[in-house]
Amino acid sequence: MPPVLRSITPMIPAGASLRAALDFYTAHLGFAVDWQTATMAGISRDEIAFNLVVNDNREWSENSSFSIGVTGLEALYEACRAIPARVGPLEMKGWGRREFHMIIPSGVCLQFYEQEPASSR
To answer: Fewer Cβ neighbours under 10 Å: the N or C end of the chain?
Structure first.
């Protein structure tokens, strides 16, 4: 039987403070901490997981971007508007996805999208 790729868990720069990153992801985005060391932590919410890694190289953070597919995009957008992050507008993109992005305190860009089913387009 051939091997099967089943999931991906990106390593996301946490900035210089793992504690501050964990506080942000848990308090504002609803993630849970699954495991933690002095310089890394695994977090998850619903069907996704990230590994946060301490890194004070702002350039790495500011060049990191992750697209996250969701259901209930409008409700998530409304909840995120109050988060201490730079939240962009919720809009339909030319490639057929409704989405918004946020730049979190570490500099990482999280893009949340909900794609219409092919039969609706």
So the answer is: N
